[in-house]
Design brief:
Length: 166
């Protein structure tokens, strides 16, 4: 992104320099060659050149600054909408941005995070189901062995939950 900003500045400076060069070459150069100009009149030629270059650079800078943030704002807006839905519990989401967008790495990192959350929640769900099955069997059998299995499954469940910093 820094290189794009530098490129915008460089382009603006090049436009200003090119305008200044050609304008001064046409008007001031001819006048000096013909010896019809005095030193006090040189500023009369320089001020319009500087103003023309300034306004051309200003217009170019405004146009480019309007187009440049779109490459970041568009993907950022899409990612923001998806994250809100993920925060509501929809872990089936996958954040997709166009190839080459500035925020591709961020989208990939968020997708990896979502996969990790899915895996952890699946583990919690599996352990919880196992505890439910063991509790139903313990009710029928009344066995100490099943109670020990329930305790072990509960320890696994607690360890999985501790992965989250709540």
């Amino acid at each position: 992104m820094l290189f794009k900003i530098w490129a915008i500045i460089l382009i603006s400076l090049l436009v200003t320099g090119i305008i200044f060069y050609f304008y001064s070459d046409m008007n001031v150069g001819k006048s000096y060659r013909m010896f019809h100009i005095k030193a006090e009149n040189f500023l009369d030629f320089l001020v319009p050149v500087l103003l023309t270059g300034f306004f051309a650079s200003l217009v170019l800078g405004v146009v480019l600054s309007l187009l440049f943030p779109h490459a970041i704002a568009g993907p950022l807006y899409r990612i923001e909408r998806e994250i809100v839905d993920i925060g509501r519990g929809n872990l089936r989401k996958e954040i997709v941005v166009r190839r080459g967008d500035e925020l591709q790495d961020l989208a990939d990192s968020i997708n990896i995070m979502i996969m990790g959350l899915r895996d952890n929640i699946k583990t919690i769900s599996d352990i919880s189901g196992e505890i439910g099955d063991l509790a139903a069997r313990a009710k029928d059998e009344g066995s100490d062995e099943i109670v020990n299995k329930i305790k072990a499954a509960n320890v696994n469940l607690q360890e999985t939950i501790k992965r989250f910093k709540l």
